[in-house]
Write a structure and sequence with these properties.
The chain is of the alpha+beta class. Helices cover 23% and strands 37% of the residues. The protein contains three helices and 13 strands.
Amino acid sequence: MTRPIVWAFGTMAAAALSATTAGERIASQLGLVATAPAPGAPAEDRRPTTTVAADWRGHFIVHPTLDGRRIRMMVDTGASLVALSHEDAELAGIRVGPRDYTHRVATANGVVAAAPIRIGEVRIGEIAVRNVEALVLPPGKLGTSLLGMSFLKRLPGFEIAKGRLVLKG
């Protein structure tokens, strides 16, 4: 009689563990682990946070929404502004033409023209920053869009430790 009960509990435990593991695996593939604030915590502890695990190269890849449209970006504390590739800008519904490239910016690959823009809202999980200054680079000039300091400095805080980036909303 006890064997079926033990078997049933074992099956339920295995199902619960695999469901949790699968969810964590999916979040890890997206590079995100959102944490909810504890009820009754002080106001500064009730702010949303998002934790991003470093990829195999040590980079922090995020998938924020820009005015409701999701794109892939690398967090870059060395970038003064959010920088979008022309292709990602189009995916986000941002259209720039040849005459919009009025600024010259220094990049790792030299000086390039850039189109200054403002993004209405950049959102990662529960963290949202509005009216974010950004640049769009010409086609083929930026392989991965960058989530730079024009977003990061507007957060209450962020920290990097032990292969994880914690964004504080």
